[in-house]
Write a structure and sequence with these properties.
The structure is a homohexamer of 190-residue chains. Chain A is mainly α. Helices cover 64% and strands 0% of the residues of chain A. The first copy, chain A, is built from nine helices and no strands. The two termini of chain A are 19 Å apart. Chains in contact: A-B, A-F, B-C, C-D, D-E, E-F. The interface between A and B is large, with 44 and 44 residues.
Chain lengths: 190, 190, 190, 190, 190, 190
């Protein structure tokens, strides 16, 4: 991939124009990952809006004892597959491979979580995330009770729904604005 | 509607347990509207997460010269109709009636914006919001160019996409958690 | 709404050209409601065809002990929501509010009858009407048996199917011909 | 097919219980066709309702100079194919074969009117009927103008829409009530 | 139908240019049926490719004790109805009529196998073929177990899936290349 | 992945029971790739049927000057993404990466070929393959003319349709029989 690849159909903020904290964040990411995820590069031109979305997003993706980082990322790819979001499938596909420490299983969860050897609890979680994605009005209290029966606590059931809802936001924003995933992701955690 | 109506399938935070700023917000809303919108009542149990989502949401709904409050609310009901979200159709249906200062036109935009007497620019805006909702992967740079040709600037085109994406978040969160719209909305701005 | 609003994409019969009984009907409606429903105004140019459809429609909407006026109107809005018919949602949305004597519940039935606090019998009735609307070929005798188990008699089960079928007719005729609902409906029974 | 085949999931009126005119109609049909179409046999138990529907239906199916019997029946099978209605595909499939005086072309129109050698005007008529069936809310005045450009007059364009709407009624009533087409139809007009 | 009807949107091989075995096959078919099925006429220009496809197809359609010719053809029309394939509905609709030795039942299976008086085992077989057609990724081992419970052996269950898959191939090839069914089929086995 | 992973819901032929040529093929593949593709392992129990399908498949995937190996594989993943076929996405996703000699572009074509930087000719080819997949009955001669205008010759246009049709076969057979892609594919051509 050439370095100058276009990663958004909208203007990209110059790093010099970023708020100091955003610039600091980008420098940290460069140091840690070797690149800044393009969703940040593409969204940063919106200034404080970007920071507010990121604050919400990062709070939501924090693990809890009942719903870890890997679970939250599995939800992200199950939803992104339904919405066909290139950006999120590539970026979060990497995250699932890395968090599961199993590149084959990670790809399988991304392509078809029903054929990835997951247990019944994880399948139920992802089926619910897909229901929230595809037929939100058809959700009912019975869905919540079914997840409780699988051992999820209420706070985590809410988070399954909210993570699913969040990727219905990010999938749409990324797809509508032409965000391209960083090419580095494809080879990571293989 | 009885006062004790259940407005969420999840626990509701007691007002006494809310953070001081959230309690202050609820008191302001009670004073201004006569009630607190149930999305706030239902979401508040998530603590700081609620504040972070609200910060993003309110920033996004701020009007700009090229995309006013009414336009942003029209997008919200067009998206909510596609997702069949009772909560948002009722709450934001009121907002559209109020902002358009025309209860008939507001309801028409909510039910079917193609039959509401809107101009070509508004129709194009809402058709794009529906495309972002129903087929995000099919969006292309040509959609953005078409909106530019209608006179929208890039920053507002991004916002049309982001508002559409946001209601794809809120529609799903509201529908999955059983949020019920405050009964007061139905009679307001009639 | 201006008085001269266009209410059909087809010619409108002059009142002077109507058959005497149609004119009499329109005068009665003017006296009773303050207006003639636009579906009548728009359809009347078809002469005797209009009278024949109306004769069938009005026979079908007559209440029986097991399926009252409110039930028949609830079916009409559940079907109209699936077909996205502005005319019927507004005109029959009013009817549901008025017949239920509860404007909030009426609107909820119109937007999402699963979240309107209806009992299991009414939900089963409306789920069947939606199945008749969305997947008629998938209907089976088991659907009829399930409604019998809810206490519906055969004659009323037929009527649930026929009312659902009828609004699949009217939704399409109204949508295809550009019928606009009378603006008066929006504020009635609030 | 055995004579005692069940032709409805609902009660069938005994011929002795029919109103005299209905009995007379059935006797005429027996004499003319050799059988009474099962839609009549199955619907007759509803008494005057049946007569009212039939009056509307028969008025609507009357040919005009611009929209003949064959055209009206072609619309019926194009709509019935979309709804997968066994009864109407068989009964009206016969009608199309007979009216076109071409059994091969008649079957082709029934299965896929785009591959039946029809002219552009008939294709446009049937595409519109399918649009009225599948996406009524997406119909617009431009559809009507396009049909005018093909030479249809307004009264016939309305009838195209109304015939399409009518078969959306009959397809659903027939499918939901378990109406079986008379076995005789299959071999007729071959 | 005129003899010179166009039966493909692609070139047709002259009989003189066919490989000797293909010419021999066509002569046999002419002798047996009075015509060569147009799928063969239209596909033959691809030379050895045609023979290879036909070898696979004919192997697959061979009856076994547990899955006869009629069953394999019933699968073909159930799949073809879902894909709306004119060619296969006409050609294999004939086959089903002939093999069932019941023209009415054969047509009913073609139009709607749920309303054809089939037994539970055949319905289960066709429901599975439709699931393979419409939602292959949703298939699971439980589907196979359900067919075993109906008495199918594993080798035949595989064949149900493979026949369904095969008609998803032929339906698409026939529809995309403009293959027209031979007019003779319509009147055969009536 | 454990070596003993189950790769089909059907019996697997023992290598000792395979026909000599099939055994020889498997040995060649072991030598060349280090493994035998699971589609072969899973299908081989069907004996000569397997060989006949493979003969057709391999003939079809042979490159021509106008439609190379890479193009044929790009069609395979575009179709497999629509059908959500885990097996084909993984196995042919590898093939696209290898043939394009660009792992990032290969993955992008697999996930969303509209966002992979392909030229207009390749996009038109894949849009047609998707149309053949999703709406085969809507294909028309105009689609063929459009591909000719992009420079494709008739023989290759047929092949685009036939490759698309073939993966509608293999996607369904693989999904319905529970075929699992060899884990080796995931890390190849990265």
């Amino acid at each position: 991939m050439p370095e100058a690849e276009r990663i958004s159909w909208f203007p990209i903020a110059s790093r010099d124009d970023l708020a100091p904290e955003t610039r600091a964040l980008f420098e940290q990411l460069d140091a840690k990952l070797g690149f800044v995820p393009n969703v940040f590069v593409a969204f940063a031109w919106k200034g404080p809006r970007f920071d507010k979305w990121r604050a919400h997003f990062e709070d939501l993706m924090q693990p809890t004892p009942g719903l870890g980082k890997a679970e939250r990322e599995m939800i992200s790819v199950a939803v992104s597959m339904r919405n066909g979001c290139l950006y999120c499938l590539v970026a979060h596909g990497f995250a699932v491979r890395a968090l599961l420490k199993d590149p084959v299983k990670g790809d399988r969860v991304t392509f078809d979580y029903h054929r990835a050897g997951l247990g019944a609890k994880h399948i139920a979680m992802l089926d619910y995330a897909v229901k929230v994605t595809e037929g939100p009005a058809s959700c009912s209290e019975a869905d919540i009770e079914a997840l409780r029966a699988h051992g999820f606590v209420d706070s985590d059931i809410w988070d399954i729904a909210e993570v699913a809802a969040m990727f219905n936001f990010t999938n749409r924003l990324a797809s509508a604005t032409g965000m391209m995933p960083n090419p580095e992701y494809h080879a990571m955690a293989r």
